[in-house]
């Protein structure tokens, strides 16, 4: 009987020791922090590893997950600044930095973070126009993150990221935006086409202008060359006239014969090529031309007393008609 009672006491003592050890030794897993309460009052935080607490006096208050966690933000109906209704949703990432603050500064931490993100999402997106809303998701996420992180700083948590997953305007608004985009693209295409046509006209006009400039420069150069040629010809004629004059002054009758025959021939050529003459009748026998030149030579010898006398050329035996030119009257 005594043996049975002693065994029971030993077993009870062993169980009591095990209970005391279980309530004294606490193993905290990696990524977690435990808060310790002494008769309901927070005293300290247990970090990962083996920890000891005072049994029956201290107890574990809250087991806080210190790893980064994700919180799904449900779809929200938002009215933009230009009165467009859109549906938006997103995700929020947060991490507990202070286990005691996260455990005792706010009740139901995840619910508080979720409502904070939702209200600021509506506030930020409601202050923007629809076009800015659809094209500035990064700006929206940054603004919401800054506001929510500042508000949740006192809870001992850090809001690491907030991402907008989707923004869905109504179907009729999407159709209107599609038509607007098409009209805008057509407008830009017409503008580009008009600019291309304008540039082509400008280039064409510049090319014509450059061509006219080059043509004018060519004409000017040609006129300059022609004037220079006429000047050289005039100098040559003046030189020839001077030489003939000097020869005549020296008593050389052949020089004046050559000079007069040359001018006579040039005059006949100009007369024959005149545009207002249709018929020209003249005997151009060599004997008549030589006779005329001989007569002119005799006149020259008569005017030059020092020149040696030469016999006048004899007329040919045959009867030669007098040299004459018939000039018809130009038509009115």
Tell how many strands the DSSP assignment holds. 8
Helical element count?
8
* Residue runs with pLDDT of under 50 for 5 or more positions: 309-332
Q: Give the ordered list of helices and strands.
A: HEEEEEEEHHHHEHHH
Computed CA radius of gyration, to the nearest angstrom: 62 Å
Descriptive notes:
By secondary structure, the chain is α+β, with helices and mostly antiparallel strands. 56% of the residues lie in helices and 19% in strands. It has eight helices and eight strands. It has helices spanning 2-24, 99-104, 109-126, 130-135, 137-152, 171-249, 253-272, 286-303, and strands at residues 25-28, 32-38, 41-46, 49-52, 58-65, 69-79, 85-96, 157-168. The strands form three sheets. A three-stranded antiparallel β-sheet has the order 3-2-5. A hairpin with a 5-residue loop joins strand 6 and strand 7. It is rod-shaped and about 185 Å long. 11% of the residues are buried. Mean pLDDT is 79; it is low at 309-332.
What's the arrangement of secondary structure elements?
Elements: H1 2-24, E1 25-28, E2 32-38, E3 41-46, E4 49-52, E5 58-65, E6 69-79, E7 85-96, H2 99-104, H3 109-126, H4 130-135, H5 137-152, E8 157-168, H6 171-249, H7 253-272, H8 286-303
Antiparallel strand pairs: 1-4, 2-3, 2-5, 6-7, 7-8
Helix pairs in contact: 3-5, 6-7, 7-8
Put the structure in a nutshell.
The chain has 332 residues and is an alpha+beta fold. It has helices spanning 2-24, 99-104, 109-126, 130-135, 137-152, 171-249, 253-272, 286-303, and strands at 25-28, 32-38, 41-46, 49-52, 58-65, 69-79, 85-96, 157-168. It has eight helices and eight strands.
């Amino acid at each position: 009987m005594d043996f049975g009672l002693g065994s029971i006491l030993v077993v009870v003592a062993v169980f009591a020791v095990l209970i005391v050890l279980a309530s004294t030794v606490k193993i905290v897993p990696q990524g977690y922090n435990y808060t310790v309460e002494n008769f309901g009052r927070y005293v300290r935080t247990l970090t990962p590893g083996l920890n000891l607490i005072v049994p029956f006096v201290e107890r574990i208050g809250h087991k806080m997950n210190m790893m980064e966690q994700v919180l799904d933000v449900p779809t929200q109906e938002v009215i933009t600044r230009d009165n467009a209704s859109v549906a938006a949703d997103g995700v929020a990432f947060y991490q507990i930095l202070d286990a005691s603050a996260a455990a005792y500064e706010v009740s139901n931490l995840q619910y508080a973070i979720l409502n904070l993100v939702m209200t600021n999402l509506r506030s930020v997106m409601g202050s923007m126009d629809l076009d800015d809303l659809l094209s500035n998701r990064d700006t929206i996420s940054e603004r919401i993150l800054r506001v929510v992180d500042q508000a949740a700083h006192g809870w001992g948590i850090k809001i690491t990221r907030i991402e907008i997953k989707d923004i869905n305007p109504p179907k009729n608004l999407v159709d209107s935006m599609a038509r607007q985009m098409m009209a805008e693209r057509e407008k830009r295409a017409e503008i580009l086409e008009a600019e291309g046509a304008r540039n082509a006209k400008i280039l064409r006009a510049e090319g014509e202008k450059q061509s006219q400039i080059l043509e004018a420069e060519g004409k000017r150069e040609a006129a300059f060359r022609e004037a220079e040629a006429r000047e050289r010809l005039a100098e040559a004629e003046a030189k020839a006239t001077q030489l003939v004059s000097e020869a005549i002054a020296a008593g050389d009758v052949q020089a004046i014969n050559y000079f007069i025959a040359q001018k006579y021939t040039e005059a006949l050529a100009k007369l024959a090529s005149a545009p207002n003459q249709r018929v020209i009748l003249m005997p151009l026998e060599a004997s008549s031309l030589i006779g005329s030149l001989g007569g002119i030579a005799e006149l020259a010898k008569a005017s030059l007393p020092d020149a040696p006398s030469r016999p006048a050329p004899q007329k040919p035996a045959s009867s030669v008609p007098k040299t004459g030119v018939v000039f018809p009257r130009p038509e009115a």
